Amino acid sequence: MGGFLTVLPLAFVMIAGPQIISAVFLATSVEWARNSLAYIVGAAISITLMVTIAYLVVSGLKSSADSSSSGREGQALDVVLLALLLFLAVNVYRKRNQAEPPKWMGKLQDAKPKFSFKLGFLLLGVFPTDIVTSATVGTKVARDGEPLWHTLGFVALTLLLLAIPALLVVVTGKRAQALLPRVRDWMNTNSWIVSEIVIALFIGIEISSLAGA
What global pTM score does this model have? Predict the structure, then answer.
């Protein structure tokens, strides 16, 4: 179960930035329930797809390697993971000062479920930072010899975090209209710090793994 728990913190990296901010806008839109559900379904499909592809590719590489090269292969995968994590760290830091949401997000107030589905699919599946994060999860779980289902905790936690704005509307009703903008502003300003802490933790794990190889 080590891989199952280890990759969970990367869910916070997945939703930091326009991903969670879009969820907030959709939770305050006219058709907030349908939009939020469509957004999460789209995200679920793309995240699962990307993680599975990475897992199957790495598992295939491991299966094709003979026993004499398994040690070198494991070390090479650690190097790949470290490179992915360093890319994430640099990318998150580079975008830390983007304090204002993109102007197109203002149009989400009048979004339709079809658009929300596409947005969830693209933001969580094609967005560069999320592609690398999903690839890191799939690679890490496969590298550790864990089954594919051990990636599901990461997927589920990511979706739960994206659902929080809609859940706040369900629980607090109209009070969410005042609360969610404050949540959005805090996340937009500070989420990069949480992401960097999580990434730094994983970088430390991979460096330790390489040092002990």
Answer: 0.82
140 pLDDT higher than 60: yes
Tell me how far apart the alpha carbons of residues 71 and 73 are, in angstroms, rounded to a whole number.
5
Distance, in Å, from the CA atom of 104 to the CA atom of 131, rounded to the nearest integer, reads 22
Q: How many H helices and E strands in the chain?
A: 9, 0
Give pLDDT tens digits for 68-108. 555 566 677 778 888 888 888 888 787 776 655 566 676 78
| Residue entry with tokens 């000062």 | 97
Q: Quick one: the chain helix, strand, coil %, rounded to 5? A: 85, 0, 15
Helix/strand/coil for 156? helix
User: DSSP assignment, residue 101?
Assistant: P
